[in-house]
Please model this.
Amino acid sequence: MATSELSQEIEQRVIQLCGEFKQGITYQIIQNDMPELKLPQIVEVINRLLATSRIDMLKKDDDMLVFKLRDPGSLHRIKGAEPEEQVVYKIIEESGTQGIWAREIRAKSNLHLNTVEKVLRKLESKKLIKSFNSVAAPKKKTYLLYELEPDRSLTGGAWYSDQHFDSEFVDILNQQCWRFLEQKTVRARQVAGGPVAVCNASYGSSKEVLKHITDLGITKVQLSIEDIETILDTLVYDGKVERSTAGEGGQGVRLYRAVTSFLPTPTFMTIPCGVCPLIKECDDVGSITAVKCHYMKEWLNLDF
Model:
């Protein structure tokens, strides 16, 4: 068999191995599959496949080199790019919506940090990648493919604007969600019959609440069912809303209804015990104040 034919056969087998090992292959895997080959022969074949952009070379955390099949879509997007650009692009592509930092790219590509930063600027200018600052690390740029949106865990989701928690937006949603459920309860009392019927008619699903918020047009952010349920759950914790579930075994649609509280929901710092100078003398917070403490007496305006 001619040398060229043998080389082509080896190349095809390496390509097949890359298809079998989705996580990539190493020199050792190739040698185990073709023990008759010497390392220089394998290196020559690998270099030829890299030069023709049929495979990519990545560096793992333990400095081991791994070879993977090149994605045809990626090849089209970065056709004609320099080898360093191709390597960096591939690493960013594999990070998906989680993105990746420049120093992580440097570690995986084995390129100098200055080279990585230069390549990143080139790829950004070509609109192949983009950068953003995550909520967890606002001072570090995270890179991902231009057409992808970063994972919500990195951006903070709907509650964050420019890496800052938008408390005003959350308060508005909180009020509007509660108002919708309160109005639903009022309508139920006017239409429904007995107490049980009124109670059942007072419930609204998180999907209904989401539609109401969307129809109000108070936000340009596209909210999800999970976002609305997060807001509704805070109302549950505040004692303003009651939650139930429609479906067998507690698995199904979440339902919510407004509840009437006769006293304001106290917090630890708003009840007298929170500021009482004698709190250390109580075995449990409030255990003796209900009958003796003048702070509690004054707060509840009781005559005992």
